[in-house]
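Consider the tokenized backbone below.
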């Protein structure tokens, strides 16, 4: 049973009832309970069927699987601390874990194991909102040591001593600790609350969300021009360095502004991974990249025909190499806006390298080097999607190097104006810009070298409109096949064209990673 002691000045503090987990009592420990005294005095319960059992040693068990159950302890004045416990889910069920900053049995943060995943959740009014999730493996019936560290708005989850998941949320600033289950039976033991972070602190592969940028930094370089002008990404938020898949996936899903410094090449499991609003994902140096999976910047696909209030927005992806994506390397969808994709190197994916679709708009794609890939870039995915795309898909493509990418450079549907300027096209054996299905494209100041069909509005399917002006065509390049009028991008933003005769030299010297 926990006991109350007194500090100088009359402040109360809960002191140790028995040994702290893994060693002698520590000065920064606020609370421990290993249930060896055979009772759970000091714990308040809501729901479930709780009792002391022997599971190797005395432990605290909750056996009901018909609803949520919580047991709380500690004081409501605790602010920045970590709570940890050993947890073993018994049989099938939804989840079990630990809680922090509990205002009540229906208001708290929690770290739970749900199947083979760890989740950080905010529970408010009894409703759980998942802030972040990551795969940790394991199975029900296995003891896991879970620790939830809360520092300001930074939430960090540890599983078996490793920092595996992070989120940022400022809803709850203080409160009690808890043991929680959701439609599951579980056993809990060795509960401890410390003012220090779990274990020796985050390792180099598990840095805290406030870790400063590594040598060389990773702040966003420059500013977006064109339709994405004004995009700030994670500016104003903390910075985190990542070099594992778990860290990266947790970080890109974290709510709120965040700058994510990617170190080295990170291999993702096959799939597309959602990027939340207000993120800067920036590679450190010339060797940072993503392989195996891709980024999805957008809400799940639906048939809504007007932009939702929570559309993903304000995202920057800069200075990263993308290889071997199992689907798209970068996909922007579902009314996402203010997205800047800049100075990346993309090749050898399965589907598109950079696809923009389903009502997304106000996007700039700049200074990227794409190569060794056929299906380069789509803007608008389907001839039948006019309800979402008409009046949107306003995108600027400038100073990109389309290097032996046969087609979709880009292939455009519906968008207007689509502004394609000062790009270098080399050996595109099918088409450069294909402007189809009522789209309006202005293609100006580009350098086309050995491009079979540089600009067309009659490539396939319903025709679009295009204006080609002030471009350079060399080698075996064909002539533009354009007709119609197009809105002028200068009605939306100001820009200055480089001399198209110099574009090849400018772009090959500046596009891609490590050239910021």
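A designed sequence for it:
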């Amino acid at each position: 049973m926990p006991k109350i002691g007194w500090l100088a000045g009359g402040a109360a503090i809960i002191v140790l009832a028995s040994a702290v987990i893994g060693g002698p009592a520590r000065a920064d420990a606020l609370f421990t309970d290993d249930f060896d005294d055979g009772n759970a005095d000091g714990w308040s319960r809501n729901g479930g069927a709780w009792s002391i059992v022997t599971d190797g040693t005395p432990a605290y068990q909750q056996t009901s699987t018909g609803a949520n159950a919580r047991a709380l302890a500690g004081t409501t004045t605790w602010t920045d601390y970590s709570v940890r416990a050993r947890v073993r889910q018994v049989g099938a069920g939804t989840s079990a874990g630990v809680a922090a900053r509990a205002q009540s049995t229906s208001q708290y943060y929690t770290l739970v194991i749900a199947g083979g995943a760890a989740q950080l959740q905010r529970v408010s009014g009894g409703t759980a909102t998942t802030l972040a999730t990551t795969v940790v493996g394991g199975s029900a019936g296995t003891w896991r040591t879970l620790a939830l560290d809360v520092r300001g708005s930074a939430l960090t989850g540890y599983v078996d001593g490793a920092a595996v998941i992070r989120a940022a949320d400022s809803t709850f600033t203080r409160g009690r600790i808890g043991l929680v289950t959701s439609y599951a039976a579980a056993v809990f033991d060795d509960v401890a609350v410390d003012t220090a972070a779990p274990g020796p602190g985050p390792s180099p592969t598990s840095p805290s969300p406030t870790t400063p940028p590594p040598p060389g930094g990773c702040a966003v370089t420059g500013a977006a021009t064109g339709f994405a002008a004004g995009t700030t990404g994670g500016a104003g938020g903390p910075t985190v360095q990542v070099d594992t898949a778990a860290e990266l996936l947790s970080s890109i899903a974290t709510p709120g502004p965040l700058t994510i410094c990617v170190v080295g090449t990170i291999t993702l499991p096959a799939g597309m991974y959602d990027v939340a609003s207000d993120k800067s994902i920036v590679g450190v140096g010339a060797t940072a990249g993503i392989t195996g999976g891709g980024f999805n910047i957008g809400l799940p696909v639906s048939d809504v025909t007007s932009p939702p209030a929570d559309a993903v927005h304000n995202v920057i992806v800069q200075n990263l190499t993308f290889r071997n994506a199992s689907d798209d390397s970068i996909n922007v969808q579902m009314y996402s806006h203010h997205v800047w994709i800049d100075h990346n190197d993309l090749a050898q994916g399965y589907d598109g390298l950079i696809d923009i679709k389903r009502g997304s708009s106000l996007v700039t794609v700049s200074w990227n080097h794409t190569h060794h890939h056929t299906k380069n870039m789509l803007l608008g995915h389907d001839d039948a999607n006019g309800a979402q795309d008409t009046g949107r898909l306003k995108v600027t493509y400038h100073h990109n190097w389309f290097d032996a990418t046969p087609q979709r450079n880009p292939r455009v549907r519906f968008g207007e104006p689509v502004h394609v300027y000062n790009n270098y096209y080399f050996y595109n054996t099918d088409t450069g810009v294909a402007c189809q299905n009522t789209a309006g494209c202005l293609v100006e100041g580009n350098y086309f070298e050995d491009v079979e069909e540089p600009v067309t509005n009659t490539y396939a399917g319903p025709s679009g409109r295009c204006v080609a002006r002030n471009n350079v065509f060399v080698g075996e390049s064909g002539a533009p096949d354009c007709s119609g009028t197009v809105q002028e991008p200068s009605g939306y933003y100001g820009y200055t064209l480089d001399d198209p005769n110099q574009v090849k030299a400018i772009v090959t010297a500046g596009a891609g990673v490590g050239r910021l």
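The CA atoms of residues 163 and 206 lie 6 Å apart.
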